[in-house]
Specification:
120 residues; alpha+beta; 3-stranded antiparallel β-sheet; 10 strands; MOSC beta barrel domain protein
Length: 120
């Protein structure tokens, strides 16, 4: 697969603009800071090796994990997750439920604590 992607990128880079054929129009872009939670509509994003980034919001950079069991959850197990709003601003992750309850996490404090937990 890596070889195919590499070859495809080489061909794309060497193509003249007259060789490219429009196949669609992007109407909206979204990033999802927390996997399976509600996305944030953005005007543009940077394509990073870890995925799209819009400002401080890395796409699917965080996930919901049960602190006791280490099990992570997605919308497959917990469909209500798609209604949870998440946004990173000024180094703070804010998670807000549909009923208005919210929690904030200072990302730098989490990094400094250097606690790594393996999700299952």
């Amino acid at each position: 697969m890596f070889i195919w992607r590499s070859q495809a990128l080489t061909r794309l880079r060497s193509a003249r603009s007259s060789d490219l054929v429009p196949v669609g129009t992007v109407k909206e872009l979204y990033v999802y800071p927390v996997k399976s939670c509600k996305g944030i509509s953005v005007f543009s994003f940077y394509c990073h090796e870890l995925g799209p980034i819009a400002g401080e919001n890395f796409d699917r950079y965080f996930l919901v994990v049960d602190g006791k069991t280490g099990r992570f959850y997605t919308a497959r197990q917990k469909p209500v997750m798609v209604t949870i709003e998440c946004k990173v601003s000024d180094g703070i992750l804010t998670v807000r439920t549909a009923d208005g309850k919210s929690v904030t996490v200072d990302i730098e404090n989490v990094r400094k604590s250097n606690v790594v937990k393996k999700a299952k």
